[in-house]
Amino acid sequence: MASWLAVQPSRTLRSVYKVKQPLNLWKQTVLCSAHTQTVQETSGKSFDEMPGPKGLPLLGTFLDYTKDLGEGVRSSQRMHEMQQQRVQQYGPIFREKIFGHQTVTISNPDDVEYLFRNEGKWPRRDPPFPLWEKYKEDRDQVRGVGFLNGEEWYRIRRILNMKMLRPKVAEGYAEPLNDVASDLVAQIKAIPGTDGIIPSLEDELFKWSLESVGTVLFETRFGSFSKSPSLEATNSQIIQIVFLFPAWIDKFYRFKSVQEFYDHMDIIHNFGDMCINKKMREIQGRLDKEDIQDEDAAEFLTFLISREDISFKEITSNLIELLFPAIETTSFTTLWTLYLLARNPDLQKQLHDEVTSVLKPGEHATPAALQKMPFLRGCVKETLRTSCS
């Protein structure tokens, strides 16, 4: 391992680089903010000595990710292969700049673990999507948890954590999510196909993910299975634009796609405001009567609205910032799980045997039933380990 990691492990947090500018989190690999806290180094190399592709002025290495690989496939669609090539060429730690956005890639799992374990109470990073942040500034919107740092980040994260990442709380979502899952099964059965092949499985899983996430965050159904959701195209386009366009480019030229990004985000924020206003009217009477019961504990939006330490604007921003990554993660993790099971028929049969031994035909999965399916949980965990979404 290069001497960039030559730091004292007994300290609270060590940055592995002497950086001249912030580093950010980037897709597929762990890219760290290496300027979070005071550094005490022993023999670490300077940031300028870190290897990596040089790139062009302004563009950096952007063109490397636009190469045509044949059959309509761009190198940006083979990000994992690009990263592997970088590691082979420059080693396990390298830097790269795209549109002036400096990133550092760490490929060794032990180094990634070390970084995460030593981030401190308030890990710091620059905004992941500068163009999205500029949109927020132009629309006078507050930042959500994905764009905050320091005490403000911790304050919002602490509130959200009360209803997230807790298995007991998640159990309360079982019934509404079972309804969404039933709609997905009915939708798949209705899709015409040959030889058992579902031509649009990825699209259907996206709709299912959108419905599931919407049910949890906004406590409402979006109706994705009754019509083709425009959010699908919107989500894909937003991801492409916020990754490809730096914020400063808008000062010189307003690209059509950037304007469309603004239009799409306006629609999404208006939709979020509508859902929140509707829910506020619905529960206002209950709040006045102090009629929010313990059984409402799993209702995410109701919980946020009933609190006095988070504003209306903060609720909207945070729900929308949670919406898109949750949709992507849920749908792709499920797709990869199904793919890996299809590649391993023996494991697929083992999973089928486990599920049918616990659930009767047509019976919905309950939290108690899921506890009796360790192999199912293992399949999802292994998917997350081998095929990060």
UniProtKB/TrEMBL annotation:
Keywords: Heme, Iron, Metal-binding, Monooxygenase, Oxidoreductase
Pfam families: p450 (PF00067)
Manganese keyword on record: no
Cofactor(s) named in the record: heme
GO MF terms, alphabetically ordered: heme binding; iron ion binding; monooxygenase activity; oxidoreductase activity, acting on paired donors, with incorporation or reduction of molecular oxygen
Family (UniProt): Belongs to the cytochrome P450 family.
Protein's recorded name: Cytochrome P450 10
Source species: Acropora cervicornis
